[in-house]
Structures are given as structure tokens and as C-alpha cells.
Amino acid sequence: MHALRCEAELKSERVARVVYESVLPDVKLMPARRSRVDIDRRGNNIQIEIRAEDVSALRASASGVFRLLALSERVITTVLGDV
Amino acid sequence: MHALRCEAELKSERVARVVYESVLPDVKLMPARRSRVDIDRRGNNIQIEIRAEDVSALRASASGVFRLLALSERVITTVLGDV
User: Fold this and answer.
1) A1 vs B2, B5, B69: nearest CB
2) pLDDT tens digits for B26-74?
3) Are A30 and A61 contacting, i.e. CB atoms less than 8 angstroms apart?
4) Which chain A residues have a beta carbon less than 8 Å from that of B58?
5) Which residues of B touch A63 (CB under 8 A)?
């Protein structure tokens, strides 16, 4: 399993934009030795593409990206209330 | 983040078929209280759709499914050598 393409559906375009802009710096800082992460936003969906040399690196990157997305969405939803 | 659609690209259709058939029973057994996981296969790609009530449930299900996929792919690649 060397490539994973995911689309995360967020509650609104506003939340998606803030989540995307919040996680982008961290995604760019993710180590790129064994995997590469690309992230994009379209409307209220965030697209993630991960390519890796092996399945462990793929899982580690996927887990890291989802942790960033989940945390930032939780912060935003808490700050902005039900958006 | 209440829905996640992923497509995992496996090395070959054969590996994808064996991985899919290996993980399907476990995916069906995954608790469905706060999230629902659907999995399908097309060629050498495995499609995963996860819907959840909250982002923590979504992350837990995603992590669980990727662990199953990663483990089964590793077993198959080890057994069948470089397929």
C-alpha cells in the first residue's frame, strides 16, 4: 500500500478553510524521508494524498495528518461554537 | 469532520483482492455505535468510507481500518514475496 488518497468532509467551508490553513504549516514540516503528504481544500472538503515507501510510513503519516485535522477541527468548533 | 473517504492503492489487483477479503470480516465486526465503515475494492484500489458522529470516533475507526490494511498487506507481501 504505497498511496492513500483521502477526502475529509468538514461541517462548513469556513471550518474547512480555517482547518486547512491551521494544519498546512505542520504538514509542510512533516519529515519527508519515507513519505510525502500533499493537502488541498475544495469547498468544505479537505483532500489529502500520502505516498510512502512502505506501509508503516504510510500509516504513520496518515495517523499524524488525521491527528492534526481532528485537533484543529475540535479547537475551531469549540471557539466558534456550532458553526 | 464527520466523513472520510479514502482510496488505498495496493501493488497489484491480486494483493488488493486478498487484502480486501482478509479485512472484510473484521471491518464488519467493528463497533458501529459512533461510526460506520464501508469498504469496497476496484482493481488494485481499496475504497474506504467512514462516517462518524464526532471527530474522535472518525479517527479511531480510520486508525483501526488502516491497521488492518497495513497488517494484512504486510502478511501477504511476506508470504507471496514480491507480488
Assistant:
1) B69
2) 998 887 788 999 999 999 999 999 999 888 888 888 888 988 998 888 8
3) yes
4) 66, 70
5) 63, 66
In order of their start, the domains of chain A are 3-80 (3.30.310.50)
What's the pLDDT score for residue A6? 94
A19 contacts in B (CB within 8 Å)?
1
Strand-pair partners of B46:
B8, B41
d(CA B45, CA B59): 21
- Residue A82's pLDDT band (boundaries 50, 70, 90)? low
Q: Quote the crossing angle between the two packed helices B55-80 and A55-80, to the nearest 10°.
A: 180
Q: Measured between alpha carbons, how far is B26 from B29 in angstroms, rounded to an integer?
A: 5
Q: What contacts B53, CB < 8 A, 6 or more positions away? A: B2, B34, B35
Q: What is the ipTM of this complex?
A: 0.77
C-alpha to C-alpha distance for A46 and A35, rounded to whole angstroms = 19
CA B1 to chain centre: 19
Question: What is the SS3 assignment for B6?
Answer: strand
